[in-house]
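#onboarding

Welcome to the new folks! Below is a worked example of what a typical request in this channel looks like: someone posts a single protein sequence, and someone else replies with the predicted structure as tokens. Don't worry about understanding the tokens yet, we'll cover that in week two.

Example request:
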Amino acid sequence: MAEQTKTVTFKVKRQDGPEGTPYYETFELPYRPNMNVISALMEVRRNPVNNEGKETTPVNWDMNCLEEVCGACSMVINGKPRQSCTALVDQLEQPIVLEPMSTFPVVRDLQVDRSRMFDSLKKVKAWIPIDGTYDLGPGPRMPEKKRQWAYELSKCMTCGVCLEACPNVNSKSDFIGPAPLSQVRLFNAHPTGEMNKSERLEEIMGDGGLANCGNSQNCVQSCPKGIPLTTSIAALNRDTTVQMFRNFFGSDQG
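Example response:
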């Protein structure tokens, strides 16, 4: 009697377009050692046949680096938002349920539109302004102690997992979420970025900013890079309080 081949079952939440009706489709694939969710989706794309033996359309999802650096392959796996490139099949309970992040509008299947997050980064000026594109020479040095924690914040890959995990980020709220807030702290700490510090702080002092954080701490627990997001939020609470007093007394001193 031939030995039965081990298989892996995936239940994928699908949607044919932004206005489409969501539905689930199940796929059964041959098991391979060290298989991750991305490799399984690649197999479905190569041979899009569901567990009923019917040919269907390939599942749509985002991916790029495949090594947890770009943040593109975020999705909800067995109820938890995470990166599908590092989600190993051997560590997941079956059937493995794949769903798009609900915080963002669905484009198709597991692919979502994360414009909300990128728009928030624009609001808080999450960049370092420079005067021209020519060689300006070495920039100002950052103290080693500050550089160490700033490096931890710079690991953010804009994956959106922390926004998906946060109960205060939803379609009824303007809250920009933990990732853009942490970027405010990062760029305010930079010797050159500090010139826009007050602008960034005032942006998060209004609607959708710090006041909308409920301190659930889901963000720091779900972040794939272990970024101390709640520490950043606590530090920003202090900074915005100082900024509020400066605004009240008309002081622009650092």
